[in-house]
Amino acid sequence: MNNLIGWLGVAYLWVKAAHVTFVIFWMAGLFLLPRFYVYHQETAVGSPEDRAWIEREARIRSIILNPAMILVWILGLMLAFNVGAFSQGWFHAKLALVVALSAYQGWLGAYGKKLARGERPLSGKAVRIINEVPGIAAALIVVLVIVRPF
Q: For residues 133 and 33, what is the distance between their CA atoms, to the nearest angstrom?
């Protein structure tokens, strides 16, 4: 099994399993946080419900999203270096999508801070639409990793 060569050796499959696990955690957070924003946006600024959403959103970012994203990056780069993925076209496209998801998470954090300040710059419909971004990205990433079209 030539997957077990490279500097990771027999740890390769364990690193891969951990990577997939933390991708699931990260994606769960990326699906959940914008949904929270949909509900938060509809609350009265300064209300107890508003403050509760602010706290929930901060917990999602600090307990789920940030640690999961960091581990996805670390484990994913370990795997990529181990198998020489940087020379493969499908990996470049996947990497671009992961960078975009990371930027999306940064944007979500900034939007959450606006909500916490009482700003509501987007419509409820727009927030619902941005909730679809991680699903589209995940579908594309799965195709790139499994099918490797180029």
A: 12
Instruction: Specify whether the CB–CB gap between 85 and 91 falls below 8 A.
Output: yes
CA 134, CA 102: separation in Å to the nearest integer? 10
Report the C-alpha gap between 69 and 137 in whole angstroms: 15
Count other Cβ atoms within 10 Å, centred on residue 16: 18
The count of other CB atoms within 10 Å of the CB of residue 127 is 22
Q: How far, in Å, CA of 104 to CA of 83, rounded?
A: 27
Q: How far is it, in rounded angstroms, from Cα 133 to Cα 53?
A: 21
Please write down the HEC assignment for all residues of 89-107. HHHHHHHHHHHHHHHHHHH
Both tokens assigned to 137: 């990205």
What is the chain's length?
Answer: 150
- pLDDT tens sequence across 52-91: 999 999 999 999 999 999 999 999 999 999 999 999 999 9
* Rg over CA atoms, the chain: 18
